[in-house]
Fold this sequence. Notes:
Elements: E1 3-6, H1 7-17, E2 22-25, H2 32-44, E3 49-52, H3 56-68, E4 73-77, H4 79-84, H5 86-94, E5 99-107, E6 113-117, H6 122-127, E7 137-138, H7 143-160, E8 163-169, H8 170-173, E9 176-179, H9 219-238, E10 243-246, E11 253-256, H10 259-264, E12 273-277, E13 279-281, H11 285-292, E14 297-302, H12 307-316, E15 321-324, H13 332-347
Parallel strand pairs: 2-3, 2-4, 4-5, 5-8, 7-8, 11-12, 11-14, 14-15
Antiparallel strand pairs: 1-9, 5-6, 7-13, 10-12
Helix pairs in contact: 1-2, 1-7, 3-5
Amino acid sequence: MKRLISGNEAIFQGALRAGANYFAGYPISPTSEILQQASLHAEENPPFRFLQAEDEIAAAVATISASLAGAKAFTATSGPGFSLMQEALGWGHAVEAPCVFINSMRVGPSTGMPTQPAQADLRQIRGGSAGDYYPIAFYPNSVEECFRLTVTTFNAAEESLSPVILLADAFLSHLYEVVDLQGIDVDVVPREKEPLGKGQRLFTGTAHDKMGNVKTNDPEVYRAWLSELKDRHHRVSEKYPLFEYLPRQGSSDLLVAFGITSRILSPLKERFSIFRPVRILPLLEQELKEVTQSYRHIIVVEGSDGQYADWVEWAIGRKVLRVPCLGGGFKLQWIRHQIEERLEGETG
């Protein structure tokens, strides 16, 4: 049955469809509705466990701990809370805990502009915690995709044995669209990792062997573990080379945009070709190389000061034009004007 729902509700319903049975969180705009829905669902369905933690650090640790205990667990936050979760995220990778972290981005740094959208946490999701690890992240651009990609994020977490990140933003979280969630078919990857107390009994962020025994002076053990981790994440991410490419015949200009920004500029497809990455990490390096090679100008439109543009330049080995939408400035006419200015600067 079709009904009017928000991005946040679609995310929560996607988590339930994926088999989630534990949520820990702390209220923060623009994801507080996910916490509220989890609270109500837990009240009506006792097998679903809910924790409103004292802060985001506790929420992150509880999410990872619940995963190790056998739950399909998730949490939701925004930039300031996501900053507090970084050490726990590193621990989640170290102990190989399949779980989902939702970060609906708003303008930062610090408290920033709590009700305004941004896309400026990309570097943070890539390397906000210490050491080497290999994050996987997806970013929808519609309410239906919020539902579908939440399931995908849970599946990738189970397959990679790691925290996987679902990105959104303040506009997308509060975007309402008519969707029939019950009519959407999705595949769900079941939990295979044995819970705490069965098989592996020690889970530590300290360097360790396969059973969790501490190995802080054995580089061979560490290298073997990290290599296995890297290979597994590569295999899993390659299962999800998700993107959308809308070529415009005769156009020599390609717009690159993702999330809500790609929705806002979609009317420009009548003039420009558009490439929308859905898998944000690992970077769609090969896909970007193949798609961009036939275009004279590559214009990256994003809600940050060039974070994704930097990655695109690295991937394709050439300069790109940049349209940073800062301070919540996600408006079509302004974006169109900025694109025109940059193209004129190239041809003038």
